[in-house]
Amino acid sequence: MSCLADPRFASPPPGPHRLGHMEFQLPPPPASHMLGSPDIIANSSHDSSFLQTLSGPHDELAGGHGGPQMMSGAGPFPHGPFGPGMPHPGPPFGHRLGFPPGMPCGPRLGLPLPPPPFLDFYGMPGGLDGNYRKKRKACGKCVPCQRKDNCGTCLNCVNRAKGKQICIHRKCDALKKKASKFDKDDDKDDRSNGHKSPFSERDGMRPPQMMPFGDGLMPGMPDREGMPPHMMGLPPHMMPPHPGMLGPIPPAWENGPGGPPHGLPPHGPPHGGPGGPGGPGPLDHGPPSFYPPPSEMMPFDENSPHHPAFMPNGPHGPGPLSSSHDSSSPQPQNPSNNSGLTPMGNHEDQQNQPMIHPHMTHLPHLSAPFFPGPGGDMPLPPISMVSSLPHSSLPLPLPMMSHPPMGMAPLPTSQPDSIPQSMQNGGPGLLKPITTSSTAITTSSHLPVPTPMPTATSTGPVKPNTSLNNSPESGSRCSISPRDSGYDSNEVVKTEL
DNA sequence: GAGAACGTCTCA
DNA sequence: TGAGACGTTCTC
Ligand SMILES: [Zn+2]
Ligand SMILES: [Zn+2]
Known about the structure:
Layout: E1 15-19, E2 22-26, H1 38-43, H2 47-55, H3 143-146, H4 155-158, H5 160-163, H6 173-176, H7 181-189, H8 251-254, E3 370-371, E4 378-379, H9 383-388, H10 421-424, H11 438-446, H12 482-485
Antiparallel strand pairs: 1-2, 3-4
This protein binds a DNA duplex through residues 33, 44-46, 49-50, 52-53, 58, 60, 63-71, 133-138, 155-156, 159-160, 162-166, 171, 175.
C-alpha cells in the first residue's frame, strides 16, 4: 500500500477542507524537513518500507544495532495502530501545534490562530514546531564523541565507502543503544514463547517513535526510558510526569485547575480527531485514558500482566463486561483526583458517565459503545447497566453528558423495553463502535431522534442532523471548545445538514 | 552540492 | 542475529 494512495497519509492540499461536519482551511504545506511535512510523508523512501517493517517479520527495533523507528509510520491497522483493544494514547487532541500548551489562542480571543491541524495518522503533531529530526545525533559528550579522529583501521573506517558508518571508535554511545528500553523488552519477551507482548503482538501496534526525546532526537528532551510504549510517541508536553501514568497529560492538567469555561474540554480534536476523512480512526474508540493517583501508579512493565496497562478496565478489577459482576468487589472512588474535577474539567458527577445520553439508549447502535481492551473491542453493557455500576467499573471515564440537552426532560436510566435482551444480559449486543469524535459527541448530545452514527468503517462525511452548539447556554458540555479546536466554530465550523 | 553518517533492509 | 549495503537525512 502506498501512503500516497492512502488518504490518511496524503497531505491535504491547501484550501478548504471538510472533516465530518467541520470545515476548516488548510494553508499551504509547511516547510520541508519537518515531521509530517508533505515531503516526508509523500517522498520518504521509508514510506514504502515502514509498512513492511510494521507488518513483516523484521523487528529492527529489537535488533542489535537498529535505532528507533522515527519515521512517520502507520499501517493498515485493522484494529487500530495499537492493535485490538490496546490502550491507545489517543491523539494530542487539539494541541496547539506550535503553541505552548495552554497558550490562549483563537479568533474569539482576538489572538492568533495556531497552525492548523497537521497531524499524522496517529494524531501526532506534524512537526510544525520544526524541532523534529529523523536521525538522532551524536551526543557530543560521551567518550567516543570526544574523539576527533577516525582510527582508520576499524571496519567502518576501512569500509567507509560502502558502509557509510562513522568510525566504530567514534560512534556515540547514545547512538549505539536503542532509543527505548521497551524496544529491548519488546524483543526479549516476544520470541521466547512465540507470543509477543501486547505491545508487540503486532508490529503495527508499536507506537510511533517519531517524537524526539532525550535519546538524541531533541536535545534536552526527557528520555523515554521507562515509559510505556504507547506513550512514547507523545509530544514532550503531553508526557505524563510519571512513567506509571498510562496516558498523556490530561488537558485540564495542562491548563491548570479549573479547566476551560463552561466545562468545555480544554482541548478538542481540531478536525474531528484522527478519524478524519476516512472515517473514525483508531483513536476514536474513546478518550485518552484516565490516571490513577500516584499511589496507584507503577512503573510500566510490559512483562507484568498485572500492570494496569494491561487491565482492560483499569486497575480496579473487571469492568462491567466481566462475567462476574461481583457486587462485593471494592468500589473505589474516582481515582483520577480528589478535587472533584475530572481531567476534562467537568465535575465528578459528570465523569464516568456513558457518552450516550439515556435518551439514546433506544438506539441499538448507540447502546453498545466500544471500549478498547486487550482482548479486542468490547461493547459496553446497556446504559441501564452502566449507570448502576460502580464508576470504577467503567473502563474509561467518559466525561460526557450526564444530563439531557437543554429542553429535553431526562428519562429514567433504565429502559428495559428498549434494550435488547442479549445486551441486558451483558452479552455482546450490537457491536457498533462509538466514537468520541466531536461529531459523535455533538450528535449524541443534541439528537432528539435517532440518527445513524458514524462507524469505524464509515468513510463518508458524518451528517449529524443537528448543529454544533457552542453556546454556553446550550447545556451541552460536549462541544468542542473553539479555543481549543483552534477554530471558532461559529466562524469556520459549518453544520452539514 | 558534497560529505558524513543514521537508520533500514537484506542476506548469510 | 550480525554484518554489510545502501537510501536518506543532515550539516556545511
Ligand atoms: Zn575507525
Ligand atoms: Zn556521544
